[in-house]
Amino acid sequence: MAGDYPLATWIAALKREWLLYHLGDPRFRFMWDKPPPDEWVAIDCETTGLNTRTDDIIAIGAVRIRGNRVMTSERLELLVRPDKKKISADSVRVHRLREQDVAQGAHIDDAMVQLMRFIGSRPLVGYYLEFDVAMINRVLFPILGMGLPQEKIEVSGLYYDYKYQQLPSSARDHPAIDLRFDTLMRDLGLPLWPAHDAVNDAVMAALAFVKLRHLRAA
User: Fold this and answer.
1) Is 81 helix (H, G, I), strand (E, B) or coil?
2) Cβ–Cβ contacts within 10 Å for residue 145, how many?
3) If you average pLDDT over residues 51-80, what whole number do you get?
4) Per CATH, the architecture of 29-217 is what?
5) What share of the chain is helix, strand, coil (3-state, %, to 5)?
6) How far apart are CA 10 and CA 28, in angstroms?
7) I need a labelling partner for 47 at 20 to 30 A (CA). Which of 10, 23, 128, 131 fits?
8) Maximum CA pair distance of the chain?
9) 124's torsion region: left (phi>0), alpha (psi -120 to 50) or beta?
């Protein structure tokens, strides 16, 4: 087999088969399918706090991207009922979601099923995506025995690379690039909607991703 295909392709195929063999829930095999061409999903989570080991997801927003279009009609918006963790006053001030607001939300396992079916095998896009992925993976590991397999694309990383390329060579040893989300959006000439709303944040990350892809291709 290795003689017929490039080594990297052979290793990727072998890893895929190993992961599928050890997959805890076969309902999710579709996440390892070949992704639709030129499609991505931007995601964002609101949580009871910032500790990825102990805090809970209370809202999930996701929107599909197709080519250079953010498909706002193809979005997912879920409130999630936290299992144990109370929503702190500091968290409420950030995302404005109180315990009574999410009391009738979906159970986290049901929310994960909906989210995974919405994502499919599409690569994931987000702003500081590592946090959202860590929160989701903590829920998925008991179900799947593994975390999200999709490719992950960090918007702040794309923006950093774009701004770095614009710097004169003399400034590249110690680049000072502001990666704050509002700075990024204003610099790209994109609308800033009310932040810390899961769907709004997902849509804004999607818009930034599309704009940065366009700028990099120009």
Assistant:
1) coil
2) 12
3) 96
4) 2-Layer Sandwich (3.30)
5) 45, 15, 35
6) 23
7) 23
8) 60
9) beta
Give dist(CA 88, CA 23) in Å, integer.
Answer: 35
CA distances to 133, 181, 198 from 75, rounded to whole Å, are 18, 21, 11
What does the pLDDT read at residue 24?
Answer: 62
- Tell me the average pLDDT across 55-81: 96
Q: Alpha-carbon distance 17 to 78, whole Å?
A: 32
Across the range 19-33, mean pLDDT stands at 73
Q: What does pTM read for this prediction?
A: 0.86
The Cα–Cα gap between 79 and 57 comes to 9
Q: For residues 37 and 52, what is the distance between their CA atoms, to the nearest angstrom?
A: 32
Per DSSP (E only), the strands in the chain are 39-47, 57-66, 69-79, 124-126, 152-154
Domain ranges of the chain: 29-217
Q: How far apart are CA 86 and CA 126, in angstroms?
A: 26
Return the half-sphere exposure (C-beta side, CA atoms, 13 A cut-off) of residue 100. Answer: 0
Please provide the DSSP assignment of 114-163 as one string: HHHHHHTTPPEEETTHHHHHHHHHHHHHHHHSS---S-EEEHHHHHHHHH
Tokens 């009871």 belong to 48
